Amino acid sequence: MNNIFPEFTGLKTGLKAGLKAGEPADVDALVARFRDRSATIGVIGLGYVGLPLLRTAAERGFAALGFDIDGAKVELLNAGGSYLRHISAASIAAVRQSGRLSATGDFSRLAEVDAILLCVPTPLTRQREPDLSFIVSTTEAVAPYLRPGQLVVLESTTYPGTTRDIMQPILERGGLRSGRDFFLAYSPEREDPGNADFATGDIPKVVGGDGPDALRLACALYDAVVTRTVPVASLEAAEAVKLTENIFRSVNIALVNELKIVFEAMGIDVWGVIEAAKTKPFGYMPFYPGPGLGGHCIPIDPFYLTWKAREFNISTRFIELAGEVNTAMPQRIVEKTVEALSERSGKAMRGARVLVLGVAYKKNVDDTRESPALTIIELLERRGAEVSFHDPFLAEIPPTREHPQFTGRRSTPLSAASAAGFDAAIICTDHDPVDYKLLVEHSKLIIDTRNACARRDLAGDNVVKA
Fold it and tell me: Pick from 162, 300, 331, 461: CA 20 to 30 A from residue 244's CA?
């Protein structure tokens, strides 16, 4: 691959200046390079977190070099394309043409960058325990090319202690020391794909460092990339911030899911209750029920803390109960569908034709990670249903860890005839482009888990809220 950055032809910063292991790095000089954007930023992992960060760094004037083991991604980015729907190819092409963005699979080029930002997955094992294999393997790939004067930042969500206890020993194996030769920090990603109001550069970054120099450097870097930095006391505090944010959401979603069940038994519409409650200008924040949790963060992150808490003999009952409530929602949606089919048409689930609307984990994105819709499809098929799906953002279901059997299954076009041909339609993801009026007019039965029909003033005896 041709090197499009002329300044990469010789190693920069510490090595170029003649620094050797054991000789203190020039923190002031690196801070200055971050502030005047003459530094080079390396981002490892060019997915939903890494690619927006890489593009934003380039747009802010940095030379930005992305690293990924997926050769297809590297090739597409270097051709000025994009593989994420919410990251336009035009925006990638613009920074490519400016000469500020490039991608590679050659990790030896890490020696060329001043800051190394790790944006790799942190899933759970099948036993619901933290899977740090991506962090470990990526850190081990970084270590041989780590040189004096570099800043290393982990952005992946994880439990407190990961950066210090897992990453730091690996990076120090070669004799370099954190806080003297290189600088280690943690800054949790806060991406929200599909959110038109908050892109990467608009969201404040929490930063924790291994010592004051690392914190100062990380703040200087992110000050030049995002709207504001929020320094905290330690690496562990920064790691805890991300978990707190997502556990807060998980617990409140579980609460409103439980309220939905209670109010439904009382004949009360929870959606109307929420709309009225949110008119209170203080002391209340609206959360909405749904078919379960999806995405890479909220269904997973709480378990990172519950696992770590056991090390201190602490039981996180509240967090675990929220997880139980949210995890049970797909099964409840299936039961609601079974009940409605029986009551409305006398039809059993076995042999029934069911359309699932939306397999992305949230509206207006093409991301299926941890999507409850996939669990609902699996549960329906276990009961003998014939299940199809329609998703305007996904022509087919991509490979997933939990549901590999659905890989390649293609979206069914939505029309009056196709809607009428199903015994039930379940709205799992309320994508805006879906023709809900057509759906209400032609479907025999609609199970609406998102209140999508009522929000569009569409009503009918065939619509059941769930």
Answer: 331
